[in-house]
Specification:
By secondary structure, this protein is mostly beta strands. The protein is built from 2 helices and 4 strands. It has helices at residues 53-56, 99-102; strands at residues 67-68, 75-80, 85-88, 96-97.
Amino acid sequence: MPEARRCPRCGGYEWDSQDRCLGKGCGYEAKPSGSPGWWGGKDWQPHEARPPREAQTPHLTDPPELHTCPACVQVALYWDGAMKLYKCLNNRCGHWFAREEIGG
């Protein structure tokens, strides 16, 4: 007995000989893909290929520029662009500073 397919648009189970859904007057056309049934049967379509991993992750060309922290006086302060704050990388300090506090 063939496995019953469900229409992704209306949820119906009735199909004509040209793979069009007959449920509730839907008319959805299933396009054959030749994929296994556990991927979604004939309705499954592969996504576009992902770009190579090298293209997804930005590479740093230069190390971040460090400044002197006003709290611990160590050269361990860097600009965190996501937070829009300076952060001290010294584990004993760990202070955060606004750009105005540093004078930059």
